[in-house]
Amino acid sequence: MRKILTVLAALASLSLTNCGYNAIQSEDEQIKANWSEVVNQYQRRADLVPNLVNSVKGFAQQEKDVLLGVTNARAKVGSIQATPEVLNDPSAFQKFQAAQGELSSALLRLLVVTENYPQLKSDALFKDLMSQLEGTENRITVARNRYIKSVQEYNVTVRSFPNNLTAMMFGYKEKPNFSVDNEKEISTAPKVDFNPAPAPSK
């Protein structure tokens, strides 16, 4: 009896392997890991915002609308629970992406405004914050690209025969991915030119 059970277990394991179950499980876990890194890097950016806003406020208090826009965008990002469950809810994922896109746009508007304040651009604290922000944006891009690739691989797996039958049986569905609408903007880290423009030649 024990031998029969062993054989049945081996056959079941082989069957699950051949039907893609193990691949789906592995790729699903990889997506969760990559998503966690995306969320961590976005949180790192959000954590920089208060200090950045305060730094700019010290030199450009009159830019209230821009500063308020950044603050509100950060608050909206913070109101969204970016749990792994978001990955199975296209609507929730879209809200997350939209909120992050709004914060990206608000930060870009803030950086454009800082060009009008030479003293701010030469401030040591502001320069340090900008360096941290640029590095964080670069890490966001890397994390997003890894997530995008892992989701693409997973979605192909759960759509392919016979894996699609296994996915249907165990409730695995395609996962939402970042759209290309703001990909160009996201992949361009904010930059501030701290060097004065050369004087025009006479």
Automatic annotation (TrEMBL):
One of its GO terms (cellular component) is membrane. It is a single-pass membrane protein. It is found in: Membrane. The keyword Signal applies. Its main location: membrane. Residues 1-23 form the signal peptide. This is LemA family protein. It holds the Pfam family LemA. It comes from Bradyrhizobium cytisi. Belongs to the LemA family. Keywords: Membrane, Signal, Transmembrane, Transmembrane helix. It comes from the Bacteria. The keyword Transmembrane helix applies.
